Amino acid sequence: MESSLGFVTPVRMHFDQALALQNGQSLPAYDLMVETYGTLNRERSNAVLICHALNASHHVAGIDPDSAEVGWWDNMVGPGKPLDTNRFFVIGVNNLGSCFGSTGPMSLDPQTGRPYGARFPVITVEDWVHAQARVADAYGIARFAAVMGGSLGGMQALAWSLMYPQRVAHCMVIASTPKLSAQNIAFNEVARSAIRSDPDFHGGDYYAQGVKPRGGLRVARMIGHITYLSDDDMATKFGRALRRAEGALDAYKFSFDVEFEVESYLRYQGDKFAEYFDANTYLLITRALDYFDPAKAFDGDLTAALDATTATFFVASFTTDWRFAPARSRELVRALLKLKRDVTYAEIDAPHGHDAFLLDDARYHNLVRAQFARIAEEVNA
Predict the structure, then answer these.
(1) Known active-site residue 161
(2) Which of 58, 352, 354, 361 is catalytic?
(3) Binding residue numbers for substrate
(4) Which spans in 144-260 are helix H?
(5) How distant, in Å, are the alpha carbons of 140, 177, 301 from that of 42?
(6) Catalytic residue among 317, 321, 329, 352
(7) Listing from the earlier edge strand, what are the strands of the sheet with 312-318?
(8) 113/132 Cα distance (integer angstroms)
(9) How confident is the model at residue 322 (pLDDT cuts 50, 70, 90)?
């Protein structure tokens, strides 16, 4: 039976050894915020790593004791849930460059004593995976029972299977892609342009000015929300509903104020996001999304890129997800099948667009539950 994890307190893990980055630079001593659920078994064989997407964090499940916020994947992770913490030890790591406690642009640069700001080094998915591997080392975990993520988190799970093939038994890639399309990169650039064009951005050094590019962040988030939802979902939620009565005397008065319910929703989401997220983090993480392309080193041959993998794969997509379309997941599955890898693929007919991977859907959750039941059998064999 499903139940809540209750209050969960994160830990700050400090690493003194410099991290060599893919761009040739290195990051000296750094911190990572980590949250864990469940109990690591004596063999240390029941650990599952959850990789987060753009605006998420280490707070995967349970309740934050300070903010009372519920974890972003609380419907997936917990006692009796698809990823059952009665069986598995689950780890959530806030990635480098993020703004939820791990070292990032808001952190103090030890060389200057001021926030890194725009000087924080460019971070890639591969850099995140190397940092996560050090977290695994700190817990004495030689091999994960599974590495799992949705969207950008799915890219990290895939990277784990390529970079540390002997340390991943199962790779679970949900609503993701082996590389972004040109259209996806274009959406990211429009969002970044909105932030950079904000007069309060100050070239990324807005901390010293005591301001924040809220206007740019609002627009960036609104753009993102449009791409995360399907047309059908937006039509069902909002349609063309007006916020005022249809028969009002000013029904046709031209206005730039909020007129439609969908506008109200987008502005609300943008305002909320601008208060808690960091603009430099947004720029960094969307660039990491853009750069990820494991096939690039193999002249675009994804099958060749995946040849080093040894994991069993679970890949899931959603029919109305046009941002990370099922065609991209099928591309990954075809390449894995050419290599005769053990792969399960589910294409779920859900109306919610890209956000479907975060929502309750019995078919989707039952598939994940069945996959983890299989993994639990292997762990306990």
Answers:
(1) no
(2) 354
(3) 221, 355
(4) 152-163, 182-196, 214-228, 231-237
(5) 11, 35, 41
(6) 321
(7) 11-15, 30-37, 89-93, 47-51, 146-150, 170-174, 312-318, 343-348
(8) 26
(9) very high
Q: Which of 151, 161, 317, 329 is catalytic?
A: 151
Side-chain-side CA neighbours of 265 within 13 Å: the count stands at: 16
Contact 28, 18 (CB under 8 A): yes
321 is annotated as an active-site residue: yes
Q: Are 241 and 261 in contact (CB under 8 A)?
A: yes
CA-closest candidate to residue 319, choices 351, 292, 289, 288? 351
For residue 138, pLDDT over 90 is answered with yes
Q: Indicate the SS3 state at residue 195.
A: helix
Helix (H) and strand (E) counts for the chain? 10, 12
Residue 157's SS3 state is helix
Q: Encode pLDDT of 33-68 as tens digits.
A: 999 999 999 999 999 999 999 999 999 999 999 999
Enter the DSSP assignment of 325: -
**3-class SS at 314?**
strand
Dist CA 61 CA 191 (whole Å): 28
Q: Which of the four pLDDT bands, split at 50, 70 and 90, describes residue 372?
A: very high
Please report, as a single letter, which amino acid is at residue 11: V
pLDDT of 252 > 70? The answer is: no
Q: Active-site residue 193, yes or no?
A: no
- CA torsion sign, 203 to 205 to 208 to 211? positive
Distance CA(14)–CA(103), nearest Å, equals 10
Cα separation, 9 vs 31, in Å, equals 16
pLDDT value at 247 more than 70: no
Given a cut of 80, whether residue 251 has pLDDT beyond it is no
Distance CA 315, CA 313 (A): 6
Q: What is the DSSP letter of 7?
A: B
Question: Contact 116/109 with Cβ under 8 angstroms?
Answer: yes
